[in-house]
Design goal:
The chain has 459 residues and is α/β, with parallel strands linked by helices. The protein contains 16 helices and 16 strands. It has helices at residues 12-27, 37-44, 48-60, 84-98, 115-125, 142-155, 171-181, 197-205, 222-228, 249-261, 320-324, 336-347, 350-377, 402-411, 419-423, 439-455, and strands spanning 64-67, 71-74, 101-102, 165-168, 188-193, 209-216, 219-220, 232-235, 265-269, 294-299, 311-314, 381-385, 391-396, 414-415, 417-418, 430-433. The strands form 4 sheets. The chain has an 8-stranded mixed sheet. It has a 4-stranded antiparallel sheet with strand order 12-13-16-15. Helix 8 (197-205) links the parallel strand 5 (188-193) and strand 6.
Length: 459
């Protein structure tokens, strides 16, 4: 039995993570399966998102891996003993030695972060004017919200004021907060299929029914949405995840009409619109809405840093009272120092300059990876999605041995990411992430990948 103390100041997911880690080290062997998220949540009377967060940390540290339809499986424990002082060191060794190249589809190159500038700005904001003796504003610092409002109004076509923005601690936190405050009015979430699995996981943990709605050449299939009987929908209209399809203006207007007719709500995830390489970003769906039916979700993870954990929501005016009356209204979700540093980063013009730099850098990586893939794999390759974000989505155009691909990539120490695992649907593709690779690494990485790929083609 795990010891979970709800009166302890340590977050529940951290307590649970530590207990499970100790249990794995003491009692498990490679290949053993952990209890399901639902079962752990029931046994210890905690939310499923608490269990999911604990399991996610264990995945990051290399103790377990997630397998679709199989659950969480313990990884190779050969080099790990029960000495807690050795755990951190061993985990770091695993992380650095496991893979020569990691094609993670949503990671930035560490050198792309403006570290020196960030440190200088951080030093400037920590002065006597910063009140560290009081609780910060739960909704987020007004100055930062003002800067974000200016940016998304001008560059994303969003219509909002600073008082509509809520600063959150990453995407999952945004979704969790939203799921809580609208629970009385909505019980079913329609979501794109294939789509972003984390969203359905979060809403499922709050007891929502999940309806998967198919994708066509225009994005979310609106006929299928109508047949779902849902009045709440999550979409990625500007660059559908994972297929890359953009929803045309006619369908956007129809979707808004759908929400108005059903007294519904649209959650618009604008996850990577800053990173478009062959066209200008498409203006937001929210900017077309004259009926207050769209929640706009943004993040700094894809273009600045996933590590600073800053996301934001733009709430329709009719949801503001629900948020303000909630328990979460007084809870600051991001460090005041991080918020003030980011505010100054934007207000001093560094954000605009950084975006230009990061677009140029990742455009070069994108174009290089695309060229190498086509040069080396030619007609055996089909590019499903490209031109934006931090990855290129590919599939074989010939008969192919997927099992062998997974085996050989592991043997050659390259990490690949498959859409069925990421999106939880039936559609398969490979996410070839370039953002976390340095430009000089890409050719070597693709050389190894192409050698493996050719061995998997069935003649």
């Amino acid at each position: 039995m795990f010891v979970i103390d709800k009166n302890n100041k340590l977050p529940l997911y951290i307590q649970l993570y530590k207990e499970i880690k100790k249990d794995i080290i003491a009692n498990y062997k490679s290949g053993d399966k952990l209890h399901s998220i639902r079962k752990i949540a029931s046994l210890y009377n905690v939310s499923k998102i608490t269990v999911e967060s604990a399991y996610s940390q264990l995945v990051v540290e290399g103790y377990i891996e997630s397998y679709p339809k199989s659950g969480y499986i313990v990884t190779d424990m050969t080099n790990i003993n029960s000495d807690p002082n050795k755990i951190q060191t061993i985990t770091k060794i695993q992380k650095t030695e496991d893979y020569l190249y990691d094609f993670f589809p949503a990671r930035l190159d560490n050198k792309s972060f403006p570290l020196k500038l960030w440190k200088r700005l951080l030093t400037k904001v920590i002065d006597n004017s910063l009140n560290l003796g009081s609780y910060p504003c739960g909704q987020g610092e007004y100055g930062l919200r003002t800067q974000i409002a200016k940016y998304i109004n001008e560059f994303r076509g969003v219509k909002c004021q600073a008082n509509q923005i809520v600063i959150c601690n990453g995407f999952a936190d945004s979704m969790g907060l939203l799921a809580k405050i609208i629970k009385k009015d909505y019980d079913t979430l329609a979501i794109e299929n294939p789509g972003y699995q984390l969203t359905s996981n979060v809403f499922d943990s709050f007891g929502y029914k999940i309806k998967k709605v198919g994708i066509d050449n225009n994005g979310l299939n609106l006929d299928a949405l109508n047949n779902s009987n849902a009045n709440l929908v999550y979409i990625t209209p500007s660059h559908q995840f994972p297929t890359g399809v953009s929803m045309p203006i006619s369908n956007r207007l129809k979707l808004i009409q759908w929400a108005e007719k059903r007294n519904g709500l649209i959650i618009e995830d604008d996850y990577d619109s800053e990173l478009r390489y062959s066209s200008r970003p498409i203006p937001s769906l929210q900017g077309l809405d004259n009926h207050d039916r769209v929640v706009f979700i943004g993040t700094f993870s894809k273009s600045l840093s996933p590590a600073i954990r800053v996301s934001y929501m733009v709430l329709p005016n009719h949801l503001l009272p629900l948020y303000q009356q909630s328990f979460d209204f007084d809870i600051s979700r991001v460090s005041i120092i991080t918020q003030k540093t980011l505010e100054k980063f934007i207000s001093d013009g560094h954000w605009d300059r950084h975006l230009r730099k990061i677009r140029t850098l990742n455009r070069k990586k994108h174009d290089l990876m695309k060229k190498l893939l086509l040069d080396k794999l030619g007609n055996s390759l089909k590019i499903e999605s490209q031109g934006g974000g931090l990855s290129i989505l590919i599939n074989p155009s010939v008969e192919f041995n997927w099992t062998l691909l997974k085996q050989l990539s592991s043997k050659k120490r390259i990490k690949l990411y498959f859409d069925k695992e990421i999106s939880g649907g039936d559609w398969e593709a490979i996410h070839m992430g370039f953002g976390g690779l340095e430009e000089h690494e890409i050719e070597s990485a693709i050389n190894i990948f192409s050698e493996i790929w050719k061995q998997c083609i069935l003649s």
